[in-house]
Amino acid sequence: MLAQEIKKDIGENIYKCYQCIKCTSGCPTVYAMDLSINQIMRALQLGKDDLALKSKTIWLCTSCWTCATRCPQGIDITSVMDFLRMRAAKMEIRDQQAATIAGFNQIFLDSVRSHGRIFELGMIIKLKMMTRKIFQDLGLGLRMILKGKIPFAPQRVGHMREVRSMFRRIREIEGRKV
Amino acid sequence: MKVGYYPGCTLNSTAEEYNISARKVCASLGIELVEISDWTCCGASAAHAASHLMAVALPLKNLLAYQKLGPDTLVLPCAACYSRFKAAAYLYPAHEEEMEEIFREKYDQALEIRSLLNFLTGEELLRSIKERVKEPLTYLRVVAYYGCLLTRPPRITGEEQYEYPTFMEELIGELGAEPLDWSYKTECCGMSFSLSAPELVIKLCGDILRNAKDVGANVIAVACPLCQANLDTRQREVEKRYQVNLDLPILYFTQLIGLALGMTPAELGLRKHLVPLRV
Description:
The structure holds two protein chains of two kinds. By secondary structure, chain A is mainly α. Helices cover 61% and strands 0% of the residues of chain A. In chain A, α8 (96-115) runs antiparallel to α9 (120-131). The longest helix of chain A has 20 residues, at 96-115. Chain A is globular and about 50 Å long. Chain A starts with a helix and ends with a helix. By secondary structure, chain B is an alpha/beta fold. Chain B has two domains: 2-117, Up-down Bundle (Glutathione S-transferase Yfyf (Class Pi), Chain A, domain 2); 136-272, Rossmann fold. Chain B contains 14 helices and eight strands. The interface between A and B is large, with 60 and 56 residues.
């Protein structure tokens, strides 16, 4: 059961949740979610892990930390969302909006891996290739380019070897844990 | 006074004017900002959603470099970078062994990690700013927008007034502008969803912008490049979707300080914003 793995992995006890719904009340994006935050907590308590993992909810969470800040039981719900995202990333995401958000996270981290810093223009092009929404935000993008807000080349970072070895060692440690 | 300075990725791109104005203001206050040349990305909201180790390692790589630099305070203008650095320092003890395996060195936890806003609104510097005000911003009615990460989660930021902070309003008042009360100062703007789910950002920024307008603001003050980008670049779409006229310039608090100290809009990069400040 995921609830037990969450306890082991990040130390949060899902069973403390008594459904006061403060998390959901404060959530800025709950209006667009399929399950509310308290329903995710309930699903985990009941061992209905798939409901949580396959929800749009975990991808529509902006990590604003409101739920974790207000939970009267002190459950770090935002970190629970992180845990669920890590698990769900290995599964197929059917909802298009959720898949785009998950894909963009990946594109972001790829940019850090390749350049040490994010390269906005490269990320935007990759996102457009992924979503095939070539024309979305085109006008806005041009206005931002005209304002000099989007550089055409990635920022240069010395010692990229250190960055690569950091990512390699992270992979090694994570590989040992599985 | 010398402090470490970590600008973060966006301050060299979409938020260049935040970098420019922060440097100008600090220089005029006699603060020397020391930056290492090959700092790397903090991982923002993507790393902690993907891997516990990445979430700690990416900021820690920079913390290790800054701890060797000299100054015992590290100042971060970007709220997201600030949040990730604070979180990494908080989570470090639980991952100490793994981090040592990755970096072959220890983090001594001696650096004081502060947001630029919190740093500049400290008692002494705030007084120093007040004494230097040449052109009070009496023409501005300002709502202070903190967003999520400057105050939340309080166990990491150490912020006491995390639901209704007022330290930015104190600064705004000292600059001669009128700070206004409102309901959305710590609500979320949608963060990185700007690119991946813009329709969500338009709704969230719509709520924030309309409340700011309703209470009579003519400027929103921010301390985060993502908040600025979302509120500024999505404003036209918000106006269309909700059939409202907003015309609300989104200024970094450093730009407001600069204006009050007598710097010109051009010097402070005000032309970079999509919604212009008309003075």
